[in-house]
Task: structure prediction
Amino acid sequence: MITLPEKISLANLPTRTYKLQKLSEKLEKNIYIKRDDETGVELSGNKVRKLEFVTAEAKSQGATVLITCGGIQSNHARATAVAAIKLGMKSVLVLRESEKGHAEGNHLLDLVVGADIRFISAKEYAEKRFEIMEDIKKELESQCETGYIIPEGASNGIGLFGYINAMKEIKTQEEELGMKFDAIVSCVGSAGTYAGLVVGSKLYNMKCDVIGFNIADTAPNFQKRSFEYIKECCNYLEGISPEILEITEENLIITDGYAGKGYALNVSADFEFIKEFARLEGIFLDPVYTGKTLKGMVSEIAKSNFGLEPNNPMADFSQYQNILFIHTGGLYGLFPKAGEMSF
Ligand SMILES: Cc1ncc(COP(=O)(O)O)c(C=O)c1O
Result:
């Protein structure tokens, strides 16, 4: 019996999991989708699952203000601002200023819910965002408020439980569907979703490969980062360690090669893929996370169908027949990209 930490219910769960008929026919595999983009409207996507656990911890520590950070179009920052409202709290969002334009997408929604937004430069963000958030926490103390700092993407030990819990949900859905996934695919942006799924797969004895596609940075860096979160997460689970779960940094399967020009940067092929998928299955992907991830997965499956070498030998899709893609949301990030799309 595995006891997870307390959570506050914020997401519409369980999310739908079903077969993508047309994509399955095209790729000659059984491709399923888990619609975590449907966890909510205001609190949508993968972040809300993490925030269920993170905000419970914040509340238990007496926090009155959630402090977090991200890019100007951060889905996580927007979800945090909304969660704060729903829980009778306030939020301070530390956002990277380099991308500042007129308010749209997630930034617009941050303003609509009245988040306290503090812009910092890309340099400051890279070098001292933690320090800046600590200073904000002190500033709040002088106003008799108690701040709780949530790292980028709510990716930390407690945040991982969102996707440990999702894995439990997937196991139940497998039973309902009468089938077994042999690969589960997710995006890797700050790695909490991926790392949570890996821990969940071991805790619930799923016997499947959990494959991440990084949309920025490099796979080795994310293996390192994921492993750190996994160690941190195990501190919440009595008697559990990465060794017991047989998780090592090296056996984390993250496939490189699909980040394109870098975080939140797109080429026209990304938008073509998003349009093609919307026209095939009637589902919207986002340009920063899910578009690049599914494009990567489809490319790797196509390569395996032609007997070509995979980008990551640990994730050779020729060995999988039943594949689950987790749609982690992000639709609001499509709107600020309208100018880059052609029709
Ligand atoms: C829509 C969406 N999908 C995927 C991710 C990546 O998840 P994670 O940060 O847990 O790696 C993010 C955030 O980074 C996101 O906003």
Observations:
- The domain at 47-154 is CATH 3.40.50.1100 (Rossmann fold).
